[in-house]
């Protein structure tokens, strides 16, 4: 089975639509969303509509939790709080209820895969894994992890492998999983990449061949930015799209 993995859409409709068009050419049999459907961007209802229609599993992200009342976001920086407040005002109640119902994590032992937004240990805390130190800390709980843990949250494409002794960071791209190793794979962001590559990031996992590949695709950034400006969201969330930060 080929699983299309999406994460950190952040209400960026143009990016999501472009990624879904790209998926249509790749024989995807199932979609999984790793969270943060909303936040920052100007099209939360439209993005919720699409994800609810196509995704067989959607994990709760920290922005999803914030707008649906599952976490306190008063400590977020001012612009992020403004965007979340705006999202709460415009989101339809059906989408708020759906976001509120999402799981923090889902283990699927039949395919030896875990889906989480952030670190899989205490997932409700939304801790990051984007560097070696954080990966080593996560692998201290290696016995609790399935072979592959797919995460989002950092908006970065990262692959960490553990052979029971040491952790290595792998170059993103096409990899064939080694049955002797466990992996934590950060799939990157569709709607707001932060690795200085503004292209939308998405991924495909093949459960039969045990292969994983990350992809990038260009989309109409100017359209997404204009929607942010017109919605009177903080300008920074439109401007940063052009540089991928």
Keyword list:
six-stranded mixed beta sheet, 29% helix, 23% strand, 8 helices, 245 residues
What radius of gyration results from the CA coordinates?
A: 17 Å
What does the main sheet amount to? Answer: 6 strands, mixed
CATH architecture: 4-Layer Sandwich
Structural class: alpha/beta
What is the mean pLDDT?
Answer: 97
How does this structure look, described?
29% of the residues lie in helices and 23% in strands. The strands form two sheets. The protein has a six-stranded mixed β-sheet with strand order 3-2-1-11-12-9. A six-stranded mixed β-sheet has the order 4-5-6-10-7-8. The longest helix is centred in the middle third of the chain and has 13 residues. It is globular. With 245 residues, it is of the alpha/beta class. It has a single domain, classed as Metallo-dependent phosphatases (Purple Acid Phosphatase, chain A, domain 2), CATH 3.60.21. The model has no long low-confidence stretch (mean pLDDT 97).
């Amino acid at each position: 089975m080929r699983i299309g993995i999406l994460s950190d859409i952040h209400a960026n409709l143009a990016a999501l639509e472009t990624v879904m068009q790209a998926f249509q050419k790749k024989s995807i049999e199932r979609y999984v969303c790793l969270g943060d459907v909303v936040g920052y961007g100007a099209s939360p209802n439209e993005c919720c509509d699409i994800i609810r229609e196509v995704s067989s599993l959607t994990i709760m992200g920290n922005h999803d939790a914030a707008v649906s009342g599952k976490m306190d976001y008063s400590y977020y920086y001012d612009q992020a709080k403004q965007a979340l407040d705006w999202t709460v005002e415009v989101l339809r109640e059906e989408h708020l209820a759906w976001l509120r119902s999402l799981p923090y994590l889902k283990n699927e032992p039949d395919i030896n895969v875990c889906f989480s937004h952030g670190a899989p240990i205490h997932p409700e805390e939304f801790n990051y894994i984007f560097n070696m130190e954080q990966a080593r800390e996560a692998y201290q709980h290696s016995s609790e992890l399935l072979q592959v843990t797919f995460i989002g949250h950092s908006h970065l494409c990262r692959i960490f492998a553990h052979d029971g002794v040491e952790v290595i960071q792998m170059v993103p791209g096409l990899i064939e999983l080694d049955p002797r190793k466990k992996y934590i794979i950060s799939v990157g962001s569709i709607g707001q990449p932060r690795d200085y590559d503004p292209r939308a990031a998405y991924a495909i996992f093949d459960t039969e061949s045990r292969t994983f590949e990350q992809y990038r695709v260009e989309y109409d950034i100017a359209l997404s930015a204009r929607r942010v400006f017109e919605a009177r969201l903080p300008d920074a969330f439109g401007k940063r799209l052009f540089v991928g930060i």
